[in-house]
Amino acid sequence: MTSTSQNIKIVQVPIADLKVAGYNPRKWDQSAETKLMESISKFGLIDPIIVNGAENRKNIVIGGHFRLHIAKKLGYTEVPVVYIYLPDINKEKELNLRLNKNTGEWDLDLLKNFETELLLDIGFTDVDLGDIWDDVLTIEDDDFDESKELKKISETNIKHGDIFS
């Protein structure tokens, strides 16, 4: 494994100097915009934008397009930036994909310790909550037989021509 040591500095950069990468495949919807806008309004823009500092790719945003989009909507004129040196556009594109893809997974047992209201407020859906608590949701009737219950549902005494009012 090779490692490169970079002296990472966060600097404030005018938004007008930054250029979005036309190849960035990340997209978002209105709900995600609302949630990120709420978060940035509450805590500020604490996650810097990753920007290319190589002369031939100067000020191209590699990571943080969504945060930059919201910062513009909120009226920011400067944003925190970390410059990295990537003169090779293919490496730049690879890093963009990796930054967007490397999101990790949740520890569901730890999420159970959070208030449901907080999880919903920050964007977890009902489906997400179901995933979190799915293992504790059980049917309490030990005599329940799903196949028998489904058979009952499918049985009917309705005949063709019956009229309902």
Give a short synopsis of this structure.
The chain has 165 residues and is α+β, with helices and mostly antiparallel strands.
Record the SSE blueprint.
Blueprint: E1 10-14, H1 30-43, E2 49-52, E3 61-63, H2 65-73, E4 78-84, H3 89-101, H4 108-111, H5 116-121, H6 126-133, H7 146-154
Parallel strand pairs: 2-4
Antiparallel strand pairs: 1-4, 2-3
Helix pairs in contact: 1-2
Structure write-up:
With 165 residues, the protein is an alpha+beta fold. The protein has 2 domains: 94 residues, Conserved hypothetical protein from pyrococcus furiosus pfu- 392566-001, ParB domain (Alpha-Beta Complex), CATH 3.90.1530.10; 51 residues, no CATH class. The chain has 7 helices and 4 strands, in the order E-H-E-E-H-E-H-H-H-H-H. It has a 4-stranded mixed sheet with strand order 1-4-2-3. A hairpin with an 8-residue loop joins strand 2 and strand 3. Helix 1 packs across helix 2. The longest helix has 14 residues. It is elongated, with a radius of gyration of 25 Å. The model has no long low-confidence stretch (mean pLDDT 84).
Cα-atom radius of gyration = 25 Å
Shape: elongated
Using the coordinates above, name the CATH class of the largest domain: Alpha Beta
Biggest beta sheet summary: 4 strands, mixed
Distance between the termini: 75 Å
| Number of separate strands | 4
Query: pLDDT below 50 for ≥5 consecutive residues: which ranges?
Result: none
Global mean pLDDT: 84
The helix content, as a percent range, equals 25-40%
CATH superfamily of the largest domain: Conserved hypothetical protein from pyrococcus furiosus pfu- 392566-001, ParB domain
* Overall number of domains: 2
- Largest beta sheet: what is the strand line-up? 1-4-2-3
SSE series: EHEEHEHHHHH
Q: Count of DSSP helices? A: 7
Query: CATH topology of the largest domain, anyone?
Result: Conserved hypothetical protein from pyrococcus furiosus pfu- 392566-001, ParB domain
Level-2 CATH architecture of the largest domain: Alpha-Beta Complex
Strand content: 5-15%
Structural class: alpha+beta
